[in-house]
User: Fold these one by one.
Assistant:
Number 1:
Amino acid sequence: MQYKKKDSLYTTAWGQSVLVQRKNGLKRLSMRFSLKNKSFMVSAPIRFPIKQIWEFIDSSKAWFTKIISKQSDIIEAKKAIVPGQAIQLLGSAVTIEFIPNCQAKVILNGSVLEVYGIRSKFEHQVMKYLKDLAYEKLSEYSNLYANKLGVTITKITVKEMSTRFGSCTSLGNLNYCWRIVFSPEPVLAYLCAHEVAHLKEMNHSKTFWSHVRHLCPNYVQLRKWLKQHGKELFEVE
Ligand SMILES: [Zn+2]
């Protein structure tokens, strides 16, 4: 019988990749999520028409959504930038959606981050959006607080940092970790107050904390939040 077909990869209209595996002895289609490979798989009888397999996958969007939303419980910690992924953005739950389009753009529409473009550029687009948003918000608060304290910022840099969320130099350079966008906005504001206050006091003295309090009156709670939840901001990779 000359019907043996190789395994193939199918991508749905909403950007979900599914591995289609042909298996001997199967009578019907079955779909599962592999924890080990972190991927969706369909097992199909060797002689099953490929078009019907694709239709089966396409008609199961609700099932995919359910699995993806539960994924964070199943696979603890790490969250990949993939279509359907749910993240926290400045304190709001946001789902990242991929929309195939010839024009690349990223729009936050309510609780959905709509990513228009081609699938291979998806992750890059999302990361750029998150880092740009981080820069925008961190600059906004840093400049606001610098004006209030009467200090001058030389340069603001937003980058990956693995052990902390901010640092500053005596030359007035502020460095921030872009991942602070995954925290509630008041926590991001506290981080800015903290770093800007260092431009007045390069230590953690009482005077330093009085500057922080002046900029951010409820800083104690926000600092506590960052201590407790800081690790979670590193889940997205
Ligand atoms: Zn400090």
Note: The mean pLDDT is 90.
Number 2:
Amino acid sequence: MTRRLFQGVPGVTDTTGQLTTDHCPLPTVTEGDNDTLHEECGVVAIHSHPDAARQAYLGLYALQHRGQESAGIATADGQRLANIKGMGLVSEIFTDDVLQKLPGHMAIGHTRYSTTGDSALLNAQPIRVDSVKGLIAIAHNGNLVNLGNLRSRLERDGAYFQTTSDSEIIVQLIAHSRANSLVDAIAGSLAQVEGAFSIVMMTRDRIFAARDPRGFRPLSIGRIQNPNGPDTIVFASETCAFDLLRAEYLRDVLPGELVMVTEDGITSRQYATGVPQSSCIFEHVYFARPDSRIYGRWVQESRDQMGRQLARESGVPADLVVPVPDSGVTAALGYAEESGIRFRLGLIRNHYVGRTFIEPEQRVRDFGVRLKLNPVRNLLEGKRVILIDDSIIRGTTSRKIVRMVRGAGAKEVHLRISCPPTISPCFYGVDTPSKRDLIAANKSIEEIRRFIEADSLAYLSLEGLLKACDGSEHNGYCTACYTGNYPTQWVDVEDILPATVGF
Ligand code: SF4
């Protein structure tokens, strides 16, 4: 995987390709952001709704946690296809005026945090390609891993790439397919690429949705019943989007399945079979919202079980269980109930900082973490505290949080992590540092404990995590970032080299 650097062009691009600069809130990365994991994308699709753009907007709004760098919506009315995308949050880009420029009864939408391709408007999605098969727009969640010579082969065949994003490979494969029908072209193209993809696609009159054969990323189908017309069919990365749209959950798009929605209804075909499922378990640990159902299982239930299992595996005498908000909250509730130790919100998160904050000089070292989290001194003073978090990546943020809790008067600070140590990078759509920067790949648990200055440190076991997510090592989850066993052949050698010098 090549991580390219790019000087982005701020603004919003519309169907004419013109850039305007009135919607260009570029993110300013605060200190500490490089010590957390980022999801890459969320996708939605709407078929048969008189205001499809607004429905897509609401869906993306519910999926904002999956990517805050850029967002886009493409719509179609049976004749034309419009596409607007921009840098920033969904609500910043899609004002009422902008939504009015997106007519049609069909829409696809995308919200993005990038790792592959440049971090800029150029690679914001949906990506639109005009081909002999007509206009096609695509929105993609995940990462392809066998790009190798596909791109140069397509360029030799006359493909003109508008972006450096791997998502465009899929749509160019479709555009250059020799298959007679569009459905055959899509199925044949998806079968050629390897890696993680949950995609939604739109032509002038059809919506397509597909998941890769291993089902790395989630994608669900929902329906809004319309008493006076055809039902609206909705696709979304997470079911929490259905709640905002008042859509009922029908089912997941299956791994290796291609679903097509037309005026005549829904049809489906299995374009790949016989591949073992390896859905990303980290969706349950961290990325997905607890109010979503992912791979048929409520995330809230998994996290609660992670906390309970963690308490059983690594209990320690203490006065309080305190979550690192927000993602540690559900696991901490489970831990507290299982251990009988009181749960308290001893750290308060400020939800209004992060993206647009102008970072102070580098010498104010802990400023980024202190901006986001603040300890509740009267709860923590003199207490033995169990802190619950969902991961330790480089270790620097964890150390700041441990210091913060101790600085607020805690007598002891015990850190418990609701998943196993992260020892290998992800190549399937999660932005992880390379192995040399992952603290658990280069230090023992006791060395990490000393580094983060905790009184004790324990992680959930792999068996415990699989049990909490109702899986076993062989029935459906990717756990490669905890084991280094990748479900695909492809790995990036540079990224999996451990550190050779002291951390
Ligand atoms: S490597 Fe980890 S983060 Fe990536 S897909 Fe597998 S479980 Fe998810």
Note: The chain has 17 helices and 28 strands.
